[in-house]
Specification:
mainly alpha; about 210 residues; single chain
């Protein structure tokens, strides 16, 4: 049986941020942004370069601004060494670090990864839409902001989260959870944090 979805959160703590409704994992965009940061060393300069040169190749300015804002929020969750790995490391490392950045930026995503994704992996079942909906309902008992979101917003958030998991190679198109092979460098990055960010990955019985 899956663990109860209890976070021990105090009602006085900040509410969830729930703006992860675009872009999936943003792998291509993050590679561009990370490389700029390695070269420029300043996030403001990165933002200016992305905007002035339309490096995200968005057809509309509003779309470019939305994606750029989301991208920079996530990249700033990473250490400079992690950003450098995203910029020039192998594709699996890049995806795994971007998944960690996503989970760091959005507490809801991190808790879903820890409380749902890993348990589904242990049980050997498929991750379904209903798993997200059950988690949402459980968390809404503590988070009034979830109760006030429209069902269409919840559907969009779920779709983008599942897209990100597929792009991170943690989930197949048919809902099978994949235990990733993390490189020693990525393990070191994730383990350096307290608590360890390995909790965001469906490692089965390996943790």
């Amino acid at each position: 049986m899956a663990r109860p979805m209890e976070t021990g959160r105090s009602p006085a703590q900040p509410p969830y941020q729930m703006s992860f409704d675009v872009g999936g994992l943003l792998v291509e965009q993050a590679t561009i942004g990370a490389a700029l940061f390695v070269r420029l060393g300043d996030w403001r300069a990165v933002r200016i370069s992305l905007d002035q040169n339309n490096l995200l190749h968005a057809s509309r300015q509003a779309t470019a601004e939305c994606v750029r804002s989301e991208l920079l929020h996530r990249l700033r969750m990473l250490t400079p060494a992690e950003v450098a790995r995203v910029a020039s490391g192998p594709d699996p490392d890049r995806k795994h670090l971007l998944w960690a950045a996503f989970a760091r930026q959005y507490e809801f995503v991190g808790e879903f990864a820890d409380l749902v994704l890993r348990d589904v992996s242990l049980l050997g079942t498929r991750l379904m839409a209903i798993d997200f909906d059950r988690f949402w309902t459980a968390q809404a008992r503590r988070h009034n902001e979830l109760r006030h979101l429209q069902s269409s917003s919840r559907t969009k958030l779920r779709a983008n989260l599942y897209r990100a998991m597929r792009e991170a190679d943690l989930l197949t198109a048919k809902g099978r959870v994949v235990t990733p092979t993390l490189s020693p460098d990525v393990i070191a990055f994730l383990s350096a944090r307290t608590p360890s960010d390995l909790r965001f990955f469906p490692m089965g019985g390996m943790l």
